[in-house]
Amino acid sequence: MQQALLDYTLYLSDNSLILGQRNAAWCGHGPVLEQDIAITNITLDLIGQSRILYQYAAQLKGGDATEDSLAFLRSEREYKNCLLVERPNGDWAQTILRQFLFSCFQRELYTQLTKEKDSTLAAIATKALREVSYHYRWSREWVLRLGDGTAESHTRLASALENLWPYTGELFKGADYELALGLDPAMLYTNWLSAVQSTLKEATLSLASFASCFMQTGGKTGIHTEELGFILTDLQYMQRTYPGCDW
Amino acid sequence: MDSHNLEEQFQHKIDQEIKIEPKDWMPDAYRKTNIRQISQHAHSEVVGMLPEGNWVSRAPSLKRKVILIAKIQDEGGHGLYLYAAAETLGQSREQMINDLHSGKAKYSSIFNYPALTWADMGAIGWLVDGAAIMNQVMLTRTSYGPYARAMVRICKEESFHQRQGFESLLVLSKGSEGQRVLCQDAINRWWWPALMMFGPRDHESTNSDMSMKWRIKRKTNDELRQQFVDMIAEQIKVLGMTLPDPALRWNAIRNHYDFGEINWNEFWQVVKGNGPCNKERLEARKKAWGQGAWVREAAQAYANKKNTRTKAA
Amino acid sequence: MQRLIKKLYYGDIPDAGGGTAPSNDQQPTTDWPLWEVFIRSKQGLDHKHVGSLHASDAQMAIENARDVYTRRQEGVSIWVVESKRLTASNPAEAGELFEPAADKVYRHPTFYNLPDQVNYI
Lengths: 247, 313, 121
Ligand SMILES: [Fe+2]
Ligand SMILES: [Fe+2]
Prior knowledge:
The complex is a heterotrimer. Chain B contains twelve helices and two strands; from the N terminus they run H-H-H-H-H-H-H-H-H-H-E-E-H-H. Chain B is 69% helix and 2% strand. The two termini of chain C are 39 Å apart. Chains in contact: A-B, A-C, B-C. The complex binds fe (ii) ion (2 copies). One fe (ii) ion (FE2) is lined by residues 75, 129, 158, 161 of chain B.
């Protein structure tokens, strides 16, 4: 049970960290200064979430584990983040859609977790839910702008949807540690889908062609895409080159 | 009122320390000087995001990562406040950005130096932000109101930049042998470029005279540079590191530190575009702006559609 | 008296010599519209002008204002208004607008001397 709670906490923190690490690449390169600052605020929220969660995980793990040893010193197969968050940034459409699909999921997930019996997780979820609700709102508005903006933005958003949709199924497929804690994510699916569907519809996009889409899975149990190795190379560079230092 | 009279009144206001506001009469050259200076200041903030941005993905701890991201994001905000201040003088942001991309407008040369190791993040915060702050504190009293107000806001935010830089170096200086080497090396590489940030020697500075008369600038380049050297020469003792200048020593008669001659040839070469990263920096800005074009258009198109729909309804 | 400020001509007083706007500001820009941002720093205080920013619509302007101007908990409420919709007084008329108030000292409480016994008025 303790192991399941630890794994689950790591799953949550890895999700936030890896998406934060991805989004961070926009800092200084956004399409307009105002939005550069906006997405960076989301980045800071996500990495902030991951820190609190890693701190909790370190406590659960005991020994000399710290937020940084968990964030930086595990191997590829030990990261539990879903595949969706490690997808490349691509263009603004892909980044926005990835954020929207994930924030929409995170919103359902954290809402559920606020009622969780583990009081630490419940408290973390309560705080994070406020941030996530804003991410959802911000990314949703951008989905509308891009989908219903120009012909080009519509096409770009449509192709982002094609790229990302196969990675959404995994979010709702319970891993052992989720099921052990009685937190089957399948329960979140209906709400998530209806929010996504109505937003996409308003954005003049349809999910019709994805009805029988084959879903990629594995991230939650440590089988990742090739992307993760590169992400970790950057992420872990300093800790691996200068082991055991304070920063 | 003839323009001679207006000009006299204008200078009178300046001499009385009364701020000039956007709709007030001002000499054409005052407007142009301000547009040039404010927009170049804005460009510096935005281009300045790039060297540090390179290290976000590789920051050594989560704490340092969020500090660095927040710091870089602040610089974006500074760019934004400054563009807005320049816009009150009649220049559109797009025009300013085009001038940057075409090479017509300059930005601070310091950002044409590469950020090679993690310790550079500390050295940039301490030395580069430190040098910028000297300038910016002076500019909170500049004569053009919107510029002065932007600087007040910026200075409030800047105070954490230099502190986090110094503190990050302090940790390195107390760390392993490898960390101390990183620390000294970064100081060695950033010291002279930081001194160059104050611009040419006073007698070679072309814009100084009018800028001083109009109180756009309030201290000369050399005055600010000396102030900076005096400050850093003391602070480095806390780090237990050295500054790469054999001529640096306290001068009890002047009550200032003496320091060696800046390599002015290097300074002018970097200004002219021959610094180590001039091309990369400009390319990165152009790329971000160019690839953002469809995004900006889409948002505008969507807003227009929504407007038409509300009107029709 | 009513005069719309167009930010692009801000500062330009066309009827006198000098002070002309830069020549290139006539070009149309694809910038998103400019918005002025007002922030209430805490409950009970007035909104105060803090600066401006670009946004494609009002909703985005509010969100950008939140991201740009309240990163350090500077606000609890935000107003935005498109810059071109702001009307400002003309500095050339400052004399007639504001100087008449200067000699009306009797509007200020300190104009009245009261005996010490009458506290707290
Ligand atoms: Fe700055
Ligand atoms: Fe700074």
